[in-house]
Structure formats: structure tokens, C-alpha cells
Design a protein that fits this description.
Rossmann fold; 6-stranded parallel beta sheet; 21 helices; single chain; 9-stranded mixed beta sheet; alpha/beta; 2 domains
Length: 479
């Protein structure tokens, strides 16, 4: 039997070990799907949270010096095998054993070390992957380091590189002096414009230029980032690589997100028997202090509260939205102004609006199961996972037609009954109000159409299987 080719996923976070956003969900579920054809491995930083929960299971497999340019540090590598996937963790107490994952003045130095340690660890582990699949800016220097620091080594020459842009807004821009001081690379790479973006070096630009293939997390977003409106200054570089740019939509772990098996919800249910969903709604209303009413439309939002997520567009017309006789539940944290606006809403509409600040995994499951509709008015959204989960639970998404939201939510068609949710085109509060009014009209006056939409949504394939087949094709094209 032919030995499986090896793919190493490099990322700054990944479930079930550590999470701050959607990247962790992808790293937690996509490799599982790809193990059918490849030897899948994942490398992550050894954060304080990982040490606290997992250290007893980890095996130290290597310790070696890392030349960062103007200083030498030491990296240790730990290994753990879970569900057939080998996970490596890069240890550096000063860089990674901190309260948060990101948001420090030395983030560039921290992840420069991470990239260097990954590239150097291959020789110490006697393991050279066939493909390195890097993700977001934190791993953007890996393709460049393989080619510039180890370009004469045939073992590195054989490695192929795939790079995924999960959100082009966050690119990893840092002072050019870091090239020499933290990466051991010549300033020529900045002076000749290769890595220059404005006055900084750009980790994401490095990955786009030096990877064999670039992917992003939905087909529509792959087209959007080629334009000045969405490209965040990298659109011209991406246009040069457009032949190598693939848009592959994310999926979700359908075993974890399954209303028939979910132990975090009060009552399990299926598309064939929705009585449990109605019980989940009443339980959510009771626990959140809302008036218990099976007949009142319950709209929910689980999100970071930032301008990207459209929260300010929503707040612009929130009182008119509440005039549609709906209940509104929000779970999330973010900008102080947005949080204050939601607190004010809760005060103004007692027993009809509730804001839960922070993130609660169990509560998110109960919201997906108990709500009737799910609000995602994003100004831009590379893919989005919440709309996939909400459809899985028969909670109809209300989304803007952008990025992956446009690719995954089929808008309601009043003439044919088709659709899996509701969508609007323009990033305005007026459009949000208009489409929510349409959803409320269907909910209150056309129950047959609403129930058909629930059936359509729950029948939609939101698994990784279809996307994994595209990744197989992508990998095959470069091996």
C-alpha cells in the first residue's frame, strides 16, 4: 500500500486546544476530513491555556536553538496524537505563556519565532511534509523561510506550500528592521519592494508571493479580495496570483453541531420532529428573562461586536426593528460603544431584548437551537460559520450578500418557496430593516412557507465533505 503524502497545517490556534475565533474551528475540523487521503499533522504554539489543560498528555520530542537573526533562542517541540492526527506544539515561555493569544506590541517577534521554529523543527524530527498549509498572517513567513533560508536543501525544495487567507483585514504589518533582527533575512527583501507594504513588512504579502497556491474561505470572497473595496491594499498582488487563488468554502463539524445529538440543548430534535425546537425556544426565553411565548419571533445574534459584523448598521435602526414585534437576544463582546448600545436596548425593552456580554459555549448552542432567526448583517464576511450552524439547527439566517454569506445562504423566493434564509444586498440599516420586516411577515403570516424554509435549511449540506474534495484536488495539482 502506497504511503500517504503528508500535510502539515500551521496555525496560531486550533480546536480542541485553543480558540479565539473561527480559524480555530477550521483547524479543529478540516484536518479530520482530510485524513482520508493524507497523513495530517498540525503545529500550534504552546500557549498557557494549552499547558493548563493538556500538558500531562504531551510528549517532548525535540529541543533546539533558533537563530532569530540578532539573537538566538531555544524552542522545544511537544507531540500529541488525537483522532489519528499528530499535533506539534512549539514552546517558548516568554512568547506564548501569556494571558491572551494576540494583541501584544511584540506580536511580530512572537510569530516570527513561531515560523522559524516550525521550519527548523523538520530536521530535528526527521520529518519533512510534502505540503505545508499555512493559515493567516501569523504563519505567513513559512514559505519564504523555507525558500530563502533553506533553499539549497533538497528536502526543503520538495515541500509545496498552500496559504489560506481567513480574513485579509489582518495582514501582519511590522517595522522592516524585523527582517534582520527577528527573521535573519536580508533588508533587500524590503528595499526591493518584495515584502514592503507602505512603510512596513507584511507577513501576508510574503505568503501570497512565495506559496504555490493561495486559498480563501469562500468562492465569492476570492473574487471580492481582487478589488480595491475588499483587497485591503493587497488586491494588485492577488491579481498577479489570481490563477493560483482558490475559493473553498468552510464547513462545520456536523457531529458537534447536531440538534439530534447535542447534549448542550434542553431538548434534542430533528427536521422530521421539531417539537424539541419549540421546547428549546421556551427554555431559552425563560433562562434569558424574556416573555415566554411560542408565537413571538425570536431573533438572535452570536458575534464579535465590531463594525465588520454590521453591528452599527443594526443599531442605527434597532428601535424600528423592535417595532416588528420581535424578541432579540445577543451573545458577544467587542467595541464598547456597541456594547453600551445593546445594554441600552435591554433597558428600553425589558423582557423583549437581552444582551449577554462575553462568550459562553453552552449558551451559544442553546441560542442556535432556540431562536427562530439568526442575524448576520456583516459589512464583509470571508466565510462565516454561524450561518452554517444556524441552518443546521433550523434557525433561519438573515444575512448580507457578501463573501461566504452569499455563497452559503439561499435567499427566500416567495414564488417558489425556495431558500434557506433571507438576504439583503447593501450595507445599510435600511436594508436590514427591510429584510427583517420580510422575515417577520413570513413568520407571522405564512407558517407553511416558514416551515418549508426550516426544512430546506436543515437539509443543506454544511459539512466539510464537499470542501475537502476541493482541497484534495488542490493538493493533487501541486504534488
Amino acid at each position: 500500500m502506497e504511503k500517504k503524502k503528508s500535510v502539515l497545517f500551521a496555525a496560531s490556534e486550533g480546536m480542541p486546544f485553543v480558540k479565539s475565533g473561527g480559524l480555530a474551528d477550521v483547524i479543529g475540523s478540516l484536518p479530520q476530513e482530510l485524513t482520508k487521503r493524507f497523513d495530517l499533522r498540525v503545529v500550534l504554539p504552546l500557549y498557557a491555556d494549552v499547558i493548563e489543560r493538556w500538558i500531562d498528555k504531551l510528549e517532548k520530542v525535540a529541543t533546539f536553538p533558533v537563530n532569530q537573526g540578532q539573537k538566538q533562542t531555544v524552542a522545544s517541540v511537544y507531540r500529541y496524537v488525537l483522532n489519528g492526527i499528530t499535533y506539534y506544539f512549539i514552546e517558548h515561555q516568554g512568547y506564548f505563556e501569556r494571558e491572551n493569544l494576540y494583541g501584544y506590541p511584540d506580536d511580530g517577534e512572537r510569530f516570527a519565532f513561531f515560523d522559524l521554529a516550525i521550519v527548523d523543527m523538520f530536521e530535528h524530527l526527521n520529518y519533512f511534509p510534502d505540503i505545508i498549509h499555512s493559515n493567516d498572517w501569523q504563519t505567513g513567513m513559512i514559505p519564504l523561510l523555507c525558500k530563502k533560508r533553506h533553499g539549497s536543501d533538497v528536502r526543503y525544495q520538495r515541500i509545496r506550500h498552500v496559504y489560506t487567507i481567513h480574513n485579509i483585514l489582518f495582514q501582519g504589518n511590522f517595522p522592516p528592521e524585523m527582517l534582520e533582527s527577528c527573521l535573519g533575512l536580508p533588508m533587500d527583501l524590503f528595499n526591493d519592494g518584495t515584502l514592503r507594504q507602505g512603510r512596513d513588512i507584511n507577513f501576508m504579502k510574503a505568503a501570497i508571493l512565495f506559496s504555490d497556491k493561495i486559498t480563501t474561505v469562500s468562492n465569492n470572497y476570492a473574487h471580492e479580495i481582487l478589488t480595491p473595496e475588499y483587497g485591503e491594499g493587497l488586491e494588485k498582488i492577488l491579481q498577479l496570483r489570481s490563477w493560483d487563488l482558490w475559493g473553498i468554502v468552510n464547513g462545520i463539524d456536523i457531529n458537534m453541531w447536531d440538534p439530534k445529538k447535542d447534549k448542550k440543548i434542553p431538548k434534542r430534535y430533528s427536521a422530521e420532529d421539531l417539537k424539541g425546537k419549540r421546547e428549546c425556544k421556551r427554555a431559552l426565553q425563560r433562562s434569558m428573562g424574556l416573555r415566554v411565548s411560542s408565537d413571538t419571533m425570536l431573533v438572535a445574534m452570536v458575534s464579535r461586536l465590531t463594525s465588520q459584523k454590521g453591528v452599527y448598521l443594526l443599531l442605527d435602526h434597532i428601535y424600528e426593528l423592535m417595532g416588528l414585534d420581535i424578541q432579540f437576544v445577543v451573545l458577544g463582546t467587542g467595541d464598547e460603544h456597541a456594547e453600551n448600545g445593546l445594554r441600552s436596548l435591554e433597558y428600553r425593552f425589558p423582557h423583549r431584548a437581552v444582551y449577554y456580554r462575553g462568550y459562553n459555549e453552552e449558551l451559544s448552542h442553546r441560542i442556535y437551537a432556540g431562536a427562530d432567526a439568526f442575524m448576520m448583517p456583516s459589512v464583509f464576511e470571508p466565510c462565516g460559520i454561524s450561518q452554517l450552524i444556524s441552518m443546521r439547527y433550523g434557525t433561519l439566517p438573515i444575512v448580507r450578500e457578501t463573501g461566504g454569506l452569499k455563497d452559503t445562504v439561499d435567499p427566500y423566493n416567495a414564488y417558489t418557496g425556495e431558500g434557506t434564509g433571507f438576504s439583503f444586498k447593501n450595507a445599510t440599516g435600511e436594508d436590514i430593516l427591510h429584510v427583517t420586516r420580510l422575515a417577520a411577515e413570513v413568520y407571522y403570516n405564512n407558517k407553511d412557507a416558514w416551515n418549508r424554509l426550516i426544512q430546506n435549511a436543515m437539509a443543506k449540506d454544511v459539512s466539510w465533505e464537499g470542501s475537502a474534495n476541493l482541497y484534495f484536488r488542490l493538493y493533487d495539482s501541486i504534488l
